[in-house]
Amino acid sequence: MPQPVALFWFRRDLRLDDNAALFHALKGKMPVLPVFIFDTQILDDLSDKTDARVTFIHQAVQQLHQELAQLGSTLLVRQGAPLEVWKDLLQEFPVGAVYSNRDYEPYALNRDQSVKDLLQNAKIPFHQHKDHVIFEKDEVLKDDGTPYTVFTPYSRKWLAKLQSRKQLLPGEAEPVSFYLRSYPTLQYAANFLTTQPAPMPELPEIGFAPSQQSIPPTTVARSLIRNYAQTRDFPGRAGTSRLGIHFRFGTISIREKARHAFGLSDTYLNELIWRDFYSQILAHFPGVVGQPFKAQYARVPWRDAPEEFQRWCEGRTGYPIVDAGMRELNATGFMHNRVRMITASFLTKHLLLDWRLGEAYFAEKLLDFDLASNNGGWQWAAGCGTDAAPYFRIFNPAEQTKKFDPEHQYIRRWVPELGSVRYPPPMVDHAFARQRCLEAYKTALG
DNA sequence: TGAAATGTTGGGGCG
DNA sequence: ACGCCCCAACATTTC
User: Which nucleotides of B are covered by protein (CB under 7 A)?
Assistant: First the structure.
């Protein structure tokens, strides 16, 4: 009987250090063999075969492959439907246990349940750990045991829980800081399975071509975090961290970043709390995918105007701040958060187009796309979400520009033809659109 | 992390 | 000096 191995399954946690489930795997008695699966069920649905996120994942996996080779181990890289790949793996290896970090999105929950069933039939334990968030859905609840649906009290409880356990400070109690100080160490590194490097597929082998879009670095200046509250709302300045994609795919640890922000910027830490907030909303209320959190908003009569939606997508609305945002998104896969709110308000309120159209467009374009945060943000903008902006809160693009891009630094960068005959007039009059929106929402909700 | 409409106040021009 | 009006500036209410 060959010696059993523990398989560690990388998914959206593409790093070796401060990785909760990997730590637990290495701490166990069996040698650990890491695995990554290029999931064809996801990849085959992507219409853009130069999707920058696939290039990014491929590079991150390649990096892990190299790091593990240097430790004398390897990364098994497979391609296929995860359940089928797992059936193969159980045939090929004497699997004694499987470890992974929990993923809370509906697709991932389904996928993991099917793998869990498979492993259970084979009497193989499947150990899942918390890694993507600071607090999971049942760790921050109201006193009556129900989930929060309003951010402010949620954040208060979240902070109280954090501070009472000092979980982000080195040397304090489990579970959060535990990983920070415990891995990597040479001792644990020695618990990887020693083997020859397995082959690493090139990008074309998984059906994609490389993207030229650039990815922000994993490092952020301390001064940026310190000044975050003062600079984060100005899209013309480099005042935000742009770490979203790294949180999305786990190329940096959320614990490490929360510890970084702790005591340095409450505003930055607050953004990380928003991330946990929307993650637990999605986990408790999976119906928010596709439906408004507030049911009565399903009655809002969204207009059917594909050509207007197209103008919004392409950044040809005639509102410079809106067009600048959409063009930044189309060109770079990123949009400044302030401008995400402005463009989302414009689509749902000025144009009265369904928030799900905008949500889907952002999902396709944003490198940092995260289902929970994107859905939460869109429902917030449309007024139908948890703790949402009331329906009558309608952003005025001109006022927003005055406040947040007064020198037009941002607008000039993305709409250089502003002022020339090539720039279109506003596709809808602001005062008219505002009135139309108020009446439509009032009728639907009244 | 809203904006517009409406109300209030007080300084200053002017007869 | 006084009353009247205008309006900017700020506050409050409404959508």
Answer: 1-5
